Amino acid sequence: MEQQKTAFEQGPIRPPNEAHSLLLRFTRNCPWNRCQFCPVYKHKKFAPRKVHEIQEDIHSARLMADEILALSRRLGAGGAVTEKVMSEVFSQTRFGESFRSVAVWLYFGTGACFLQDADNLVLKTEHLVEALETLRATFPEITRVTTYARSRTLVTKSAADLVRIREAGLDRIHIGLETGHDPLLELVEKGVTAAQHIEAGLKVREAGLELSEYIMPGLGGRKMWREHAIDTARVLNAIDPHFIRLRSLRVPRRVPLYKKIADGSFSMQSDDKIAAEILLLIDHLNGITSHVTSDHFMNLLEDLTGTLPEDKDKMRRVIVDYQNLCDEDRVIYRVGRRGGAFSSVDDLRRDPATYRKIEEVVSGLRARGGDEAVEIFITELVDRYI
């Protein structure tokens, strides 16, 4: 009988849209790890995992999945992972975190698998292909496999290598573009140029892989916000990625960029200014068919989503509706959004009871410390999740 491991390795992060994916770790940490805005992987050494280690984890996840399906049948659920099955899994201490993560994946039925950590394309092509082939053979029910990768790494891969990787089972690559403005890329030590971002993005698309590019509103601060928006749009227009995902800048104290804020060399943008920056970006996105999404709690306007070019006006309206709020309503919306009560400006009108509660909170904060106390409260609300 095959000996079952009680755990397999998983990394610390994944994209929000991969929350219900099967998470498998192909590399540990980040091979670059110098980005000034990133709080993850700092003081941790990068290491590619050996193919046999990855394969062992894949087989362990398979055994766990099979045990969960067997449990479902014993409980009379016929192989479906129901709430009753989940309750059984989470109530028993013998089932660890890895086992429960597989159960969650089966429960939501996404069919998706996300490969961790920050840059799996740094693996030798033959090793990545071997691991992907094992994954696909072991989990034939998987419908999508995705991973993070760096543009700097992708430009070193040949077109033939990327096609081999796709054919072995990789479907989508997530790239942290962040900005298309070269002086800003240098300032935040991204380790890549705008031209390399374009080259990498085009290589991914030409290999037949789906491409998701992340951009970071607010990264230009008060000095470079306009150049950041316009040059980022220029790079995105050159690539035409399948997805453009917004990830607004947040800088808690443990992030390296905080030192520049402390010494006055970098000034954060306000929420209102970031809204104007995103509007400028959208106005400069032309000739592409990307789907834009704001699927992250750090973003002020979660409902800013649509496919270009047909939804451009709709996305503009989301921002303009926020800008047209009176000063007090913008503050109440910001507090509600950061506290998880609101996801769109329309929620202000849909939920008057919540509006009044937040209004009381804001009034209390102002009574104790003025507008500065409100801003500190908003910052603490969002930064606690980073």
Structural notes for this entry:
With 386 residues, the protein is of the alpha/beta class. It folds into three domains: 1-110, no CATH class; 150-324, Alpha-Beta Barrel (TIM Barrel), CATH 3.20.20.70; 327-386. It is 48% helix and 11% strand. It contains 15 helices and ten strands. The chain has an eight-stranded mixed beta sheet with strand order 1-4-5-6-7-8-9-10. Strands 2-3 form a two-stranded antiparallel ribbon. Helix 4 links the parallel strand 4 (112-116) and strand 5. Helix 9 runs parallel beside helix 11 (271-283) and helix 13 (327-338) crosses helix 15. The chain is globular. The two termini are 43 Å apart. The relative contact order is 0.09. The model has no long low-confidence stretch (mean pLDDT 95).
Task: Indicate the mean pLDDT.
Answer: 95
According to CATH, the fold-level topology of the largest domain is TIM Barrel
Question: What is the share of helical residues?
Answer: 40-55%
**What is the 3D form?**
globular
Task: Report the structural category.
Answer: alpha/beta
Strand order of the largest sheet: 1-4-5-6-7-8-9-10
CATH superfamily of the largest domain: Aldolase class I
Q: Please, how many helices?
A: 15
Low-confidence stretches: none
Taking the alpha carbons of the first and last residues, their distance comes to 43 Å
Described by strand count, sense and barrel closure, the largest sheet is: 8 strands, mixed
One letter per element, helices H and strands E, the order comes to EEEHHHEHEHHEHHEHEHHEEHHHH
Oligomer: single chain
Number of domains: 3
